[in-house]
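Hello, quick one for you while I still have it in my head. I'm working through a protein record and want to make sense of it properly. Would you mind checking whether the tokens look sensible for this chain? I owe you a coffee for this, so here goes:
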Amino acid sequence: MVRRVWTAALLLTGVILAGTAGYAIIEGWGFLDSLYMTVITIATVGYREVGPLSDGGRVFTILLIFAGVGSIAFSFGTIVEFMVEGHLTSLLEGRRMEKRISALSGHHIVVGIGRVGSVVAKSLADEGVPFVVIDSCEECRVAAEEAGWLFVHGDATEEQALLEAGVARARGLVTAVDTDADNLFIALTARTLNPKLYIVARSSSVASEAKILRSGADRVLTPNVIGGRRMAAMVLHPLVSDYLDIVTHGDEIEFRLDSMPVGRASQLAGVTIKDARVRHATGAYILAVRTEDGQTNANPPAETVLNAGDTLISLGTREQLAALAALV
């Protein structure tokens, strides 16, 4: 539709230029007189002529009237259709969307909002985390707009869609499209555009996990495997499973799990867990410590020294975790 609007504008401009040039050549008038005569002719306003017309000028005027009226009718109809059908609104909304996305930094990108991706997007929205959705289906665009999510309509296997979503400034990316080949290619492309991006990819089969990891993904999840493990856990340890599900995804209780790095200037750096008195100062529990070299202490004793670069896995309320974050 935008192309038709440009075509109408170029057609009308061409008629005006041709009329101006025709009067200048046939009647020998100057530029302003020729332009004036052209405008009043195609507009059919009935103003007097600039000067007496020759026979050639009369014939040219007749042709110009037909061409001008036709071009004006086409242009007017195209503009009305453009506005009535909402194309102008869509164009303006697209510009606003691009502006909002360009202002993001440290956000997340969700590629594909099918059965898996839509759950990811909703979870990010519930946590108030800024994110952008990429999908090529029209129904997904409508669903994203209704949910109030930032949306890029395009194919994420192409660099342009990822760049429009701000991949160079993003913190993390989840690719959850239907095929393993597309997830692999998206992970590879995103890793090339942002080497520091944390990428989580969906896999349809266990056999594809290693390939997707080699392509650049940090984590690969196979939904049917995860679902099977969760079902087994619910059978074997139902209360524990329910509790963990509530802590990580529910609103029934106020406790949350979170991770936070120990900064170089943190007052906890170089201090043992016992001396830090984290529980006393913040009310949060330190459940695990992941060192800078990737080792995880799942049950750290009180004598464990917290070093700059370590990551604390902690449990507490939002307020308690916020207080701990201020310390680390």
Observations:
- The mean pLDDT is 85.
